[in-house]
Amino acid sequence: MRVHPPELPEPRGELSDSVRAYLLGRPTPRLADRSQVRRADPYGEDLQLALHLCYELHYRGFAQVPDDKEWDPDLLRLRALMEERFEDALRSRCGRFGSLDEAFDAILTEPADGDGASHFLLRRGESWHLREYAALRSVYQLREADPHLWVIPRLRGRAKAAMVTVEYDEYGCGRAERMHARLFADLMEDLDLDPGYGRYLESAGAETLATVNLMSLLGLHRARRGALVGHFAAVEITSSPAASRIAAALRRLDAGDAAVRFYDEHVEADAVHEQLVRREVVGGLLEDEPGLAGDVAFGIEATALLEDDLSAHVTGAWREERSALRVPLDQGGGRDASRSSG
Q1: The model scores a pTM over 0.90
Q2: For residue 216, which of 296, 295, 143, 294 has the smallest C-alpha distance?
Q3: For each of the chain's 342 residues, which pLDDT tens digit applies?
Q4: Nearest alpha-carbon partner for 213 in 46, 67, 328
Q5: Which of 24, 35, 170, 251 has the highest count of CB atoms within 10 angstroms of its CB?
């Protein structure tokens, strides 16, 4: 079956409007400039979508956008300005850990009274909550592990060998049907969602885009290799407990086997990956480059901050009995547009 690249989403402000018009080759005065980037909210819809449009050119691209736009120098200049704005904002919120060990301790210990999205789904989740959560996560999960691959050529020895070992699992150990991205597509079909790549980009708000953009920001720059390893460690360490809660919620709501399978896979795989990542990937990197410990800590902390922002947005909406999506599933986001998202 032929796979088509996604359509460009509608703009959400002057930055994303200028990038979208430029990608389509439409008449436009010029791409946004430094002053416009400085005025933009670094966590806002406009800047985060504009960054996502630039980053997606390094993955599957968009329909009607030529491949050579990936390395367009004008786009890269604008992307650099937006990256600087985003990263500066993140760094201003980070730095509360005095050491890398403190950063690890913060994500290794789960609070007894956790109230994040996976806790909500376990305790109170309904089918429409699960469908919305899957739609949001699809922006990353349908390309799961791809951003982390950027770091492999930048590692050596123990760190590289261990990173490849973990990624081999993420890609199904050589079996296409077992790739985690494929398993998530199966989950979406089980929940009556469209598994098409990029299908729910219009529904994903800035909080979702920021979590995805962070991976590309760190992955596409060699100078940020330590932070990407920190991001990777944070994902692998925190994934298993959350996956266990979501799997339980899916079972409670009688979701299909394919939906449960994705999270069961992560409960088992990430529990093993946790130790391998901390001892060999992080340990090997810092054995070779001890000066990157602070970068690893930043990657861990920034990941946790953005995930907390997303979780607060999602659970805040759900507690008010409203959709957490920009475009709710009953407005064309599901396979059956007549279904209500709640």
Answers
A1: yes
A2: 143
A3: 457 889 999 999 999 999 999 999 977 668 999 999 999 999 999 999 999 999 999 999 999 999 999 999 999 999 999 999 999 999 999 999 999 999 999 988 877 678 899 999 999 999 999 999 999 999 999 999 999 999 999 999 999 999 999 999 999 999 999 999 999 999 999 999 999 999 999 999 999 999 999 999 999 999 999 999 999 999 999 988 999 999 999 999 999 999 999 999 888 766 678 889 999 999 999 999 999 999 999 999 999 999 999 999 999 999 999 999 999 997 544 444 333 333
A4: 46
A5: 170
